């Protein structure tokens, strides 16, 4: 296995320090390699080394100023640095470059939710759903925002649609067979303690929370279903 493949394997396993030890010399040898910078930037973000991560994403933008993935990832780091106006501007730019990708809208919706623009978040989730009617994550997240605004019936409809899309049936079966269980995930491993959610502050910035939405491979249905399960565990059972 080559060094880069080993580094990616460490990254996927949550062994971020080990992954960084591999990517640092690779980037030193080839500082304009976009793939190396992208992976190292994400690793640095996971480790909470946000200024260093931003430097890598700044270099990526210099290499390709019109790559929506690079721009979106840079927005993640800006958000984690509490530079939310800049982050939103970057997500706007990413969306303008890739307007048919529902992930761009759901990413911006998530940031709007985090920064208090709840109606703007709903509008973006609805656009994401228009582009991808089978996106359970967007339905689920829209339901969460609708619940915050007191739209109980609308939120229930969104949650029910999300449950249906992932195959979860909350009602008891009339037959003697056991009801189908909601899909579960093993907890994410090796998340640095400084990046764990602050339960006392629902708006606290946590890479563990945000990376699940923004930092994954775009358009990956399995990833979206995985994030749905994560949300279920984070927000608890819905009424």
From TrEMBL:
According to the record, the residues making up region (Disordered) are: 170-205
Q: What spans are recorded as compositionally biased (Basic and acidic residues)?
A: 171-189
Q: Is Repeat found in the keyword set?
A: yes
Give residue ranges of the TPR repeats.
2-33, 34-67, 102-135
* Domain of life the protein comes from: Bacteria
Which keywords, in A-to-Z order, does the entry hold? Repeat, TPR repeat
* SMART domains assigned: TPR
Has keyword Glycosyltransferase? no
User: Per its record, how is this protein called by name?
Assistant: Tetratricopeptide repeat protein
Q: Which organism is it from?
A: Echinicola arenosa
